[in-house]
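Narrative summary of target 7.
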Amino acid sequence: MALKERLTEDMKSAMRAGDKERLATIRLALAAIKQREVDERTTLDDAQVLAVLEKMIKQRREAIPQFESGGRADLVAKETAEIAVLKGYMPAPLSDAEIDALIGEAIAATGAASIKDMGKVMAAVKPRAQGRAELGAVSARIKQKLS
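Modeled conformation, tokenized:
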């Protein structure tokens, strides 16, 4: 089942169960997906849907510290709950060993020797790590290995 279809089915089951928080989060996700489809005038595949969900998770992670500094514990809890729901649709995260193996393969494949080749390595790793690892952390690891 495609990810978008799974989201739609989960929305229906959340409606039936009366799970308002889950329902609201899934509706937000479907709205973001629909908006991107309208913007691009195309139907999104699973990889593109994952990218939308990953962006939503990132936005919520960035909002939490701001809400904490503003003393809004209610919004922190809401954002944390939304992250938990959205993470349920992401693929299993890569372990540290798997990330290191991906980076090693990419360095060997691109022939990277210095920090100047970081873009090539990142381009090789990104499609395989997208949605399964924090790309900022992957980038830092690549930089560490190349320096």
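The chain has two domains: 3-87, 96-146.
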